[in-house]
Amino acid sequence: MTVSRTVPPELSANCAYFFDLDGTLAEIKPHPDQVTVPQTILQLLHRLATHNAGALALISGRSMTELDALTHPIRFPLAGVHGAERRDIKGHTHIVRLPQDVEHDISVLLHAALANMPGTTLETKGMAFALHYRQAPQHEAALLALAERITRRWPQLALQPGKCVVEIKPKGTSKGEAIAAFMQEAPFAGRIPVFVGDDLTDEAGFAVVNRVDGISVKVGSGATQAMWRLAGVTDVWRWLEQINCPQQDQKATNDRRDGHESFSRSL
């Protein structure tokens, strides 16, 4: 059983920050194209990055192209498609690609299959595929079975379940591997990693952060290996305000003593 304490972690001035986007920095919407990140939140992220020598990256299932569009005009280090593509602080990209014939054959197969499942949506990401069923939850089992057949046929691929989505991605890529790669590079190296995420896809990131005594934060309910928890996206936003505004430190301390802090510890 998970027991929560209303005491937030101590954040030093030597942290490296990693954030998921959907369900963490932005509210989940019926369709991914409807998601936006408020400009005030982007400015808080930019300020946090500036105060930490640029050691802040977004770690998402979205493509880097989508992440750049959602965070324009700010350009962060990124890991997209669950770590299958990554851009470091210098702008260098590291991308895992599928053979063109494999990508084509899977795309054709998935388009044909989802055409018979009204309400489902196929999102192609080049080296990965997302099968969305938020508008058609009755197709969850069928999509999962379809994805399992594809990963058996093409063993270089792996299955990644998420919130109302089943993803097919290159084997060996994960948000955890992306965070580990960033932590080997400046300005992240030598800092305490802080990772905030909300989905099953973020658990690999929590595991990596926990192994080095970092700060892992689960957003929302549900079982997790994260050591801390925030209730929802608006709580993430409030926390960002707190750690960006030193003058609020005393108020946050008083709130914690009164038992009103939304950041809880999972034991």
Features:
8 helices, globular, 21% strand, four-stranded antiparallel beta sheet, disordered N terminus, 267 residues, alpha/beta
Layout of secondary structure:
Layout: E1 4-5, E2 15-19, H1 39-51, E3 56-59, H2 64-71, E4 78-80, E5 85-87, E6 93-95, H3 100-114, E7 121-124, E8 129-132, H4 140-153, E9 157-162, E10 165-170, H5 175-182, E11 192-197, H6 203-211, E12 215-219, E13 228-230, H7 233-244, H8 249-257, E14 264-266
Parallel strand pairs: 2-3, 2-11, 3-4, 11-12, 12-13
Antiparallel strand pairs: 1-14, 4-5, 5-6, 7-8, 8-10, 9-10, 13-14
Helix pairs in contact: 1-7, 5-6
Structure description:
Helices cover 33% and strands 21% of the residues. The protein is an alpha/beta fold and 267 residues long. The strands form two sheets. Strands 1-14-13-12-11-2-3-4-5-6 form a ten-stranded mixed β-sheet, sandwiched between helices. It has a four-stranded antiparallel β-sheet with strand order 7-8-10-9, with helices on one face. Strand 11, helix 6 (203-211) and strand 12 (215-219) form a beta-alpha-beta unit. Helix 1 packs across helix 7 and helix 5 runs parallel beside helix 6. The longest helix is centred in the middle third of the chain and has 15 residues, at 100-114. It is globular and about 50 Å long. The chain starts with a strand and ends with a strand.
